[in-house]
From TrEMBL:
E.C. number: 3.1.1.-
Family the UniProt entry places it in: Belongs to the type-B carboxylesterase/lipase family.
Protein name: Carboxylic ester hydrolase
Any GO molecular function: hydrolase activity
Protein keywords: Hydrolase
């Protein structure tokens, strides 16, 4: 006769007992609160410890997503309603306190305005299984709840949520079979920007030991810029950007404010500069407290020199956004020139000289990719190296098969490859809805093998980066280790500093 606890194991956390389920050889716990719901008096506050509960809490379903707009996979709110937004999920080979397996903690992307750990694309089963380790995913506040600069509230509440989740891992993961002394944080896009922020935050020191940053965005707001954007966001509702004005507003109304402002952000280019065309009114804020300086400054000064780092990007990052806007191959010379003038260090002529004869579409894609993801990722690795840390760098060059291959190695392609979730979220768009090829499956296995090897040993399977050889792992059908392939761009951006984006005029 089967022992019921073998199928539904119970683990005791600091706040109370939770019951998980055995699924495909793993034990999975979903929707465990790591903090009190940030509503009522806790609205816009730093996260507070979860209230203890009596008895055994079923951990069978993901917690509700934080308030947000509809994403790629449709409205997040359709999954589960409620205000218990701050939860973690755990995949473990066995909840055995003696196992002490390495732990990987995933932080989702979504432009700091959408995303939730219950998204099907973040099913961590294959990572936990292939790596024989424990994987944790977490929810954090996004949009106005998590990142808008609001008077009377701490900045970067979404980042503070991540710190609270990592503290939960430190205090509880042993009971799930994990080793709190062997924690790797990993994330993509805004998740990678979050990883870069955590590397820079005094509050996060000691909570993780390795970090993987996939496509780090270069957008960090100065406090002045964030306050100005916050004022405009609140004005969408006829209110001031204060806790007193906003705390009683339905979270869905705040989501609407961001939604209506986003497409009008380019009108503010004279005030918000490079931030305006991103149509994303949220980013980590260099407020001098939660985030004292930018990640590049922090790492160069040795802030996380003891944390081993993987940082990398995809070759054709911006192609995803051009495709989703229906503009693939349709970029005019005027639009390319405008982007070059706004983003290129050294101006438009420098890019045209570095890439002679390239059509407008290629120049537009290149400078956008370089400014937003490629160079911030490379510079993060180089800053870490300058500060005495160890960095490994990669570039994904394998082209997505969807859309006739026109997407190239675009933004977010690494996510379904890493998780093996080809049919979830962006997967059908990137892979065309067809069964993944043997080539795709092999690359997917390689991603997981490298990432989990790094989490276990600090060695992803290729040499550490240095400024002499500049060796990086190129992830393609035939992965190779070569000097950094985007040398022309690297030289163009060599002297550039990624600073907090400023407010151009009051």
């Amino acid at each position: 006769m089967t022992n019921p606890e073998a199928l539904e194991p119970v683990v005791r956390t600091a706040a109370g007992a939770v019951r998980g389920r055995r699924e495909d050889g793993l034990t999975v716990f979903r929707g465990i609160p790591f903090a009190e719901p940030p509503v009522g008096e806790a609205r816009f506050a730093a996260p507070r410890p979860a209230r203890p509960w009596d008895g055994v809490r079923e951990a069978f379903a993901f917690g509700p997503p934080p308030p947000q707009d509809a994403g790629i996979a449709g409205p997040a709110a359709a999954l589960l309603e409620g205000d218990d937004w701050l939860t973690v999920n755990v995949w473990t080979p066995a909840p055995d306190p003696a196992a002490r397996r390495p732990v990987m903690v995933w932080i989702y992307g979504g432009a700091y305005r959408i995303g939730h750990a219950g998204s099907p694309g973040y099913d961590a089963r294959r990572i936990a299984e292939d790596g024989d380790l424990v994987v944790v995913t977490l929810n954090y506040r996004v949009g106005m709840e998590g990142f808008a600069r609001i008077e009377g509230a701490p900045a970067n509440r979404g980042l503070l949520d991540q710190v609270a989740a990592l503290e939960w891992v430190r205090d509880n993961i042993t009971a799930f079979g994990g080793d709190p002394e062997q924690v790797t944080v990993f994330g993509e896009s805004a998740g990678a920007g979050s990883v870069a922020s955590l590397l820079s935050m005094p509050r996060a020191v000691g909570l993780f030991h390795r970090a993987i940053a996939q496509s780090v965005p270069g957008t960090f707001f100065s406090d002045e810029l964030a306050r100005d954007i916050g004022t405009v966001l609140a004005a969408e509702l006829g209110l001031r950007p204060t806790v007193a004005d906003l705390a009683a507003v339905d979270p869905a109304e705040l989501v609407k404010a961001g939604r209506t402002l986003a497409p009008r952000m380019p009108q503010y280019v004279d005030r918000w500069g490079q931030a305006a065309p991103t149509v994303t009114p949220y980013s980590p804020v260099v407020d001098g407290d939660v985030l004292p300086v930018t990640p590049w400054q922090a790492l160069a000064s040795g802030a996380s020199r003891d944390v081993e780092l993987i940082a990398g990007h995809n070759r054709d990052e911006n192609r995803l956004f051009t495709a989703m806007a229906g503009k693939l191959g349709q970029i005019t010379g005027e639009r390319a020139s405008k982007a070059l003038r706004l983003y290129a260090p050294g101006g438009e002529d420098a890019y045209r000289a570095a890439y002679p004869g390239r059509p407008a579409n290629d120049l537009y894609e290149r400078v956008q990719t370089d400014w937003l993801f490629a160079m911030p990722s490379l510079h993060l690795a180089e800053a870490h190296l300058a500060g005495g840390g160890r960095s490994h760098v990669y570039e994904l060059t394998w082209p997505a098969p969807g859309n006739g291959g026109a997407l190239g190695a675009c933004h977010a392609l690494d996510v379904p490859l890493l998780f093996g979730t080809f049919r979830a979220d962006l997967g059908p768009f990137l892979f065309g809805g067809a069964e993944p090829s043997a080539e795709a499956l092999a690359l997917s296995l390689r991603f997981r093998a490298s990432w989990t090897s790094f989490a276990r040993t600090g060695d992803p399977g290729w040499p550490a980066y240095d400024t002499e050889r500049r060796l990086v792992q190129v992830l393609d059908a035939e992965p190779t280790v070569v000097p950094y392939p985007e040398e022309a761009s690297r030289r163009l951006w060599e002297g550039h500093e990624f600073t907090a984006l400023p407010l151009l005029e009051p």
